[in-house]
Amino acid sequence: MKNIQNKWVRAAIPALLLHCSIGTVYCWSLISENIAVAIGLGTEGKGAVEWAFSFAIFFLGMSAAFLGSIVEKDIHKSSLIATICFTVGMVGTGFVISMTDKLGPTVSLIGIYIFYGFIMGIGLGTGYLSPVNTLMLWFKDKKGLATGLAVAGFGAAKAIASPIMEALQDSVGIVNMFYILGGVYFVMMFVGHLLLSKPEGWVEEPAKKGEGALSLIKNKTFIGIWLIFYINITCGLMLISQEKYIIKAIGLASMVGAISSLTAVANAGGRLGFSAWADKMKDRNTIYKLIFILSIAFTGVTIITQGITTQSAIIVVALLLMVNAGYGGGFSNLPTLLSDHYGMKAISSIHGIALSAWAFAGLTGNNLSNWIVNQFGKLEVIGGETVNPTGYQAVLLATIALYAVALLISVFLIKPVGKKTEAEAA
To answer: Which of 7, 59, 107, 226 lies at a 20 to 30 A Cα distance from 97?
Structure first.
């Protein structure tokens, strides 16, 4: 009974405390326009403010890549870094906004980039990575379920925090919202930091061939894993970033909040469900194949039926649910797939390097979909909302092509554990 309790107290609960805090980064769409107005840029300045989110995701991935060795050596140091950086980023963002009258809009914007993008991004990367290694050590027989549970917390954070953030903005203002949430998340993350611990008597596994950073760069299997992870995130962000407008385009503007919460649940459910399912499979890469096949099928149906332009609500909502579930499932299966191929030694470093794909996807996904929407179709007024259904439909053509590429990579480049490509065998 003691061991079972320790699994939850020393691994699962701390992971949820950390991930449910940092996962609120995905609530960005609820605050970006209000930030632009608060620093004097007006609603037309929302585009400039959006870069803060892109920087946060970029530094999330890059800090995970470069600080993975610290996570590997000292889990308490890395979780403390995460706690401090994330909460300083939150509080600092609020402080910079409050000082706009003295600093001016331009300096305030730069300050938001620094606090929300850079500092908080480092907290995101180390906070995301810190519990994963520990969870897989505690739950050796059900690694997918364990990591899926924690990463599901990251996805569920949006559904939990969204109504709270909206209520705080209305009641105390956006500056105080950052101060209050910064304090709450500091307590949550610090408790998680104190509880997080590796199993007693854990013996480090011997290194597997090809686990070093330089070897990974040359390893075709790792390159394949990096690419499918990058493509899955890019496709997910392309649709998720347009989700609110797609929902309005199909005539459901009054249900944007409810459907967004539903897709957030699908995101979290995909993280837990797909990873738990993978525990029963001989090759975890099969899960990625299923995600891509299902994503291609749902996207293809929406393209063929012109679902967005014909306002086929059931088809479009089903597509959004599937993309969110697959997006989440791709995250939760990454560390276990890597551990199957490269072992548990230095898994935090290996996982961190793989998360650099998230960094680059964070810069390309949103911007690519925005470019496509601006290039195709035209603005229309539907239900009192100005949207571009043809542009959103065009985004699907790009995502289905990318999903197809990812499926081919997962089939032909990523070999099952124990099998090698011709180049690797040579």
So the answer is: 59
Within 10 Å of residue 203's Cβ, how many Cβ atoms?
A: 6
pLDDT in tens, 186-217: 999 999 999 998 887 665 555 454 445 556 76
Distance separating alpha carbons of residues 359 and 364, to the nearest angstrom: 9
CA distances from 26 to 91, 243, 340 (A): 17, 13, 29
Distance CA 145, CA 236 (A): 22
Q: What are phi and psi of 380, to 5 degrees?
A: -130, 160
Instruction: Give the H or E element holding residue 381.
Output: strand 380-382
Superfamily of domain 208-417+422-426: MFS general substrate transporter like domains (1.20.1250.20)
CATH 1.20.1250.20 in the chain, residue ranges: 1-196, 208-417+422-426
Lookup result for tokens 């997918």: 144
- Measured from the Cβ of residue 313, the count of other Cβ atoms closer than 10 Å reads 16
- Which CATH superfamily hosts domain 1-196? MFS general substrate transporter like domains (1.20.1250.20)
Which runs of consecutive H residues, i.e. helices, occur in 139-255?
Answer: 143-171, 174-195, 213-218, 220-240, 243-249
Whether the CB-CB separation of 132 and 198 falls below 8 Å is answered with no
**Residues 334/233, Cβ–Cβ less than 8 Å:** no
Smallest CA-to-CA distance from 219 within 62, 418, 413 is with 413
CA 167/CA 371 separation, integer angstroms: 33
Which of 29, 306, 66 has its CA nearest to residue 165?
29
Residue 413 and residue 223 in contact, taking contact as beta carbons nearer than 8 Å: yes
d(CA 10, CA 368): 41
CA 425 to chain centre: 34
Distance of CA 326 to the CA centre of its chain: 12
Give the pLDDT confidence of 7-49 residue by residue, as tens digits: 888 888 999 999 999 999 988 877 888 999 999 998 778 878 9
The percentage of the chain sitting over the pLDDT mark of 90, rounded to a whole number, equals 51
Burial (CB count <10 Å: 0-12, 13-18, 19+), residue 396: buried
Q: Tokens for 421? A: 């490509």
